[in-house]
């Protein structure tokens, strides 16, 4: 286990998430749409026949032609298999042509899914488990419908593999002390990878890092030893400062008799305030000095 993790460097890099959102790394779209291709004669004919049928069956045909979209919904319309060239419909009332239009409703609200606990081997060969949560939303209803079969399942599987790959490149102590950096790194990779699918990954959070009980005990012992060492160093530092202070006070008293007298009176005052029965016999200092000579 490494006692010198590169945590400061990792935290310095985590100050900006946009460093991972590199547009040059975005993959190309899988499906080329044909919304700008002019309709063929057959398609025009079917459209005219459908409109005639709608007019003939009025007003009952309106129940099949009108749809209501909520504020959080967008409608993607495929006419005879081709994407309609206009932006996604909604919210409000929209009109479709029965028989030739296929309506797909896309929810653009923020969603979330859990990253189930993943077994990961760290860079320093320690096996741990990590779980988290991913928040995302549909940015482009067109791409979400046409570029990926199941946006949520694809994003979830990509997030799981990204979590394993990214966490495996770091040491254990880096992961424990830099969860935010790990979350930002995974978020950046998912942002670049899911953009062609019409998905915007808004946030990735690492919930907890699970370790074996034996490893937890070892880390606890190590942290306790570090705390004891710091306490001993602090105590030694305090004793050294106290010795220097006493030496400085002794030097001052040696050169200043008045300071020595004041210290003598202060000592007498502290003895008198004591609860113990003590008898004090004041004795002139000058006489003591003569006797010592």
TrEMBL record:
Keywords: Membrane, Transmembrane, Transmembrane helix. One of its GO terms (cellular component) is cytoplasmic side of plasma membrane. The chain crosses the membrane at residues 46-69. Belongs to the band 7/mec-2 family. PANTHER family: AT06885P-RELATED, BAND 7 PROTEIN-RELATED. It comes from Drosophila yakuba. It comes from the Eukaryota. InterPro entries: Band-7_stomatin-like (IPR043202), Band_7 (IPR001107), Band_7/SPFH_dom_sf (IPR036013), Stomatin_HflK_fam (IPR001972). Residues 64-223 form the Band domain. This is Uncharacterized protein, isoform A.
